[in-house]
Amino acid sequence: MTHPLLDQHRATLDGALKAIATRGYWSPYPEMPSPKVYGDTAMDDGKRAVAALTGTKLELDQPGVSGWTAADRSPYGVTLDVQYPVCSVDALIAAAEAAMPAWQQAGIDGRTGVCLEILARINRRSFEIAQAVMLTSGQGWMMAFQAGGPHAQDRGLEAVAYAYREMSFVPGQAHWEKPQGKNPALAMRKEYQVVGRGVALVIGCATFPTWNTYPGLFAALATGNAVIVKPHPASTLPAAISVKIARDVLREHGLDPNLVQLAVVDEEATRALVAHPAVKSIDFTGGPAFGRWLIEHAPGKQVYAELAGVNNVVIESSDNYKGMLRNLAFTLSLYSGQMCTTTKAILVPAEGIDTDAGRKSFDEVAADLGAAIEKFLSDPATATAVLGAIQSEATLKRIEEAAAVATVVLASKPVPHPEFPQAQVRTPVLLKTDASREGVYMQERFGPICTVVAVPGGAAALVALSERIVREQGALTVGVYSKNEPVIDAMVQATQRVGVALSINLTSGVFVNQSAAFSDFHATGANPAANASYADSAFVSNRFRVVQRRVHVAPTAAAA
Amino acid sequence: MTHPLLDQHRATLDGALKAIATRGYWSPYPEMPSPKVYGDTAMDDGKRAVAALTGTKLELDQPGVSGWTAADRSPYGVTLDVQYPVCSVDALIAAAEAAMPAWQQAGIDGRTGVCLEILARINRRSFEIAQAVMLTSGQGWMMAFQAGGPHAQDRGLEAVAYAYREMSFVPGQAHWEKPQGKNPALAMRKEYQVVGRGVALVIGCATFPTWNTYPGLFAALATGNAVIVKPHPASTLPAAISVKIARDVLREHGLDPNLVQLAVVDEEATRALVAHPAVKSIDFTGGPAFGRWLIEHAPGKQVYAELAGVNNVVIESSDNYKGMLRNLAFTLSLYSGQMCTTTKAILVPAEGIDTDAGRKSFDEVAADLGAAIEKFLSDPATATAVLGAIQSEATLKRIEEAAAVATVVLASKPVPHPEFPQAQVRTPVLLKTDASREGVYMQERFGPICTVVAVPGGAAALVALSERIVREQGALTVGVYSKNEPVIDAMVQATQRVGVALSINLTSGVFVNQSAAFSDFHATGANPAANASYADSAFVSNRFRVVQRRVHVAPTAAAA
Do the Cβ atoms of A496 and B536 come within 8 Å? Predict the structure, then answer.
């Protein structure tokens, strides 16, 4: 007998299980914000729901509340002032531990069903969550809806599907019968119980408060663990709404809502959570400094970390020069390059490239890319919709300082936002430099800052530099443009050696910085940018353990 | 087209895949040392092969040989004096790294086929390896044959099966096609390559030089990594023979033999191997001191560690008192308790127990167990066959010192060995104490030392103490004897909370310290005794990563 919630969502689970095995295109959560799907009033309802929260206390009914704090900061200049409960580390941990035994007893089917129900409820609130994502992260609205809504839900579902696959491979029981020659066989009944490792901590980032939080949250929850979600302070609201939905679903189904808790805590308390012996796994998306501290200070804990890197694109030649420039211009502009997958360095032969539009010198390639970005963003409505706003002061500062780092191909400009006059909108900076000036491009400059690098020494040098950047700095994405199969092959080999995903000759509607759930593995876990991937077996299989018991039973076979 | 070696061993792989899914009894490697299976001369051949190695250089043709050393020490007092090449850490690492790309290109089927062939060849040399295991570890001959031969091979095969299952779940390629409404669909071909994480280090132990080495060795090798096997110095020979077989198979199939290398190095070089940036995973079986150093000093590396614990058995009551005593006497005697799974503490109600042989006081239970051990070992031939020899000086010392720790129920005695006059054979020490004297039993005393603990407070106190021992000290095995379902249920709940395998009322031919491949998970990874299990998805799935590439192709569907 399966769990009623699993029966209800069986088609979604089956679809996800098929998708992770075949890795074609699939999603149960429509990415178009269509009134036909989400309801005629969905857009207004979502905006109203977020507006109604302004200045109020978001009640989560969590234990150990010592006060209330407002943490969100809107790059659009919108005042949110939503108050969140501040709970003590000890209270959060104690409540999480107390909630786990019954969650374990819910079994694989029960937990999976509950997770699918939470995702379905989150999906129905996509407009509200999108509004919260947009206002806190600075994403443009459409991106906030898609990446913060359905695409984030896809990533959560993907994690649930992997967890279900791995957990259900463990049989609930087995009959073991070992022949003993002329004597009766030895026979045992063995029972196997999947148990969560222990309290899971999921630390979110400011730019993708749902997309980078749901995978760890649902992977840990589905595998039998209580989860403490610690959002980035500036983007607390989307996580808080998601946690509240999860708690509502758990409560409605007779489970302890403290299986999912929100930790609105400072850095000291975050470090205390990391170090707490009850915390057995940590998911983290964010800067390499804290990430490395985490990996070094959580010995014996499972850490799933996505840090940063220097994503790069190699342009060796092109049979669609205009398409390539358009494609790269979009990549560099989208969300002002504030994606962990945005290209940071573009490697071009110092001697120029062959294209379908004739030979192009290095300087021409750089200038043409700058012009393509300028043209793409020339319409202010497109510009504000695509760029969104700059999430942090640190990124604004980096943009200002970028002009002093190298030769400026295209300078960053502020763009006024018609709807949000205080929004900090900036166009990308494009720099160029020689490969010898490694200080310019051999580091991540988070935000809309990209450097075109002149690389002497032909195709082999391009490939070698791309590989070395990934080996030393890490990367989530690498792209290559080339008309020559040997060059593409060399990039395939190099990216396999160094462990990074490769996009080849993207010139139309797929971009190097995009990663589709169920099909694209986001990060490989094989280079310094991340030690895990969304999502694969490794992302879920060590979040639970198997505890067995065995007892003698009568043998079924006659003695030989 | 699959690999010819995979075709050849397909039935073995299919059997293993079925076995890990159903977890019934299964093995392709006969555990009986029958001449019908292994050949009429197998026993003599095996002994002769090992004897022929005495005083010779075991040539492995490894790189960077700086000298030769003999490391083995036989608890039977047999001189082995096999010389092994000493290779520099840098040479081993460089050779391992150089060997990996072609191994990766061999693909999932190729690597699996080669691993199965290595195992088949190891199986054919079971008598030789058994002889090497016996002479170095001190195991009795039959145990050395079974645990060091077929059962170890089973555990290696189990790891290969899990690795194959997880790797083959990743499709080689996918067609991804996303509808675009009235526009043509976006379509891409995606290719997914399984790549090993990097050089794997497998650190073996002195007592089970093959059983505890093969799982990590084959899990790492099958998933695309080069493996450096670092045996315990005292038991180098069984690992060296296994490594030589692996290297022969690799060479014969056109692969780089340096995919499997032997590191006969001192502790300083071992620590250098652990710390080397190229080493990405470490399997370790051994003492908690080095184990904890390892877990703390290998940040960012995958560590699979089996340390130690205080395995315990709760005796609440019994409906087969004699069977229980016989069963425990065997467990405590087998290989002189030098198993990581041997019971170290037996928890008995201070007020005594109900049995089918009447009420037994605590002192009677302790005395009866002592008598059962004495009776079981009264025949010298049985005693030497079951006890084997004491592997280390440290264990001999612990046996001597045990008598001063608590009240002696049964004293340890030396047993002369007819065949090996210098063999250090000892019968077990049985101690008894009150639960209040935690210093006596709340630590592992490795070897044939077990304490019967008088626990006041009824069944609940027994269960609570068993749980606390596992939580604080770790355990690989827990047993319970009880006629009362509520007590058994309480033990089931407790062992699930604390994450340890439970054996219930073992009175016949299965023993708490035995773990059957494909059916019993050895260790849970959920308590301090170990952070991993033989074998499960978690044991293999993070040893490889997936690197993808994607490129546009023509859509197959017409636009909507």
Answer: no
Write down the mean pLDDT value for chain B: 96
CB < 8 Å to B508, chain A: 186, 552
Q: Is the pLDDT of residue B559 over 80?
A: no
pLDDT of residue A1: 58
Per-residue model confidence as pLDDT tens digits over B420-449? 999 999 999 999 999 999 999 999 999 999
Kindly state whether B275 is in contact with chain A, defined as any CB-CB distance less than 8 angstroms: no
Global pTM value: 0.97
Q: What single-letter DSSP state applies at residue A427?
A: P
pLDDT at A199: 98
User: How far is C-alpha A190 from the chain's CA centre?
Assistant: 39
Strands across the sheet containing B227-230: B260-262, B227-230, B199-203, B279-285, B302-306
- Per DSSP, the residues of A455-523 read E-SHHHHHHHHHHHHHHHH--SEEEEE-S-HHHHHHHHHHHHHHT-EEEE---SS--TT---TTTS-B-
Backbone angles phi, psi at B389, to 5 degrees: -120, 160
> Is residue B204 classed as helix, strand or coil in its secondary structure?
coil
Taking the C-alpha atoms of B377, B382, B388 and B389 in order, what is their torsion angle to the nearest 10 degrees?
60
Which residue of chain B comes nearest to A101, CA vs CA?
Answer: B497
Contact B192 A521 (CB under 8 A): yes
Residue B249's φ and ψ, nearest 5 degrees, are -65, -45
In tens, the pLDDT along A364-386 reads: 999 999 999 999 999 999 999 99
Please tell me if residue A161 touches chain B, with a CB cutoff of 8 Å.
Answer: no
Residue B305, classed as helix, strand or coil, is: strand
| Span A255-268, pLDDT tens digits | 999 999 999 999 99
Residues 340-379 of chain A with CB under 8 A from chain B are: none
pLDDT at A560 over 60: no
Please give the single-letter amino acid code of residue B511.
F
ipTM of the complex: 0.96
Nearest-neighbour CA in chain B from A241: distance (Å): 30
Contacts across the A-B interface (CB distance below 8 Å):
188
Contact B541 A546 (CB under 8 A): no
As a whole number of angstroms, the distance between CA A319 and CA A321 comes to 6
Residue type, A432: K
Residue B24 to residue A502, Cβ atoms within 8 A: no
- Band (pLDDT 50/70/90 cuts) for residue A289 is confident
A24 vs B505: CB contact, 8 Å cut-off?
no
Q: Can you list the alpha helix ranges (DSSP code H) found in B257-305?
A: 267-275, 288-297
Cβ separation of A545 and B551 shorter than 8 Å? no
Average pLDDT for chain A: 96
**Which candidate, A195, A44, A56, A4, places its Cα nearest to that of A127?**
A44
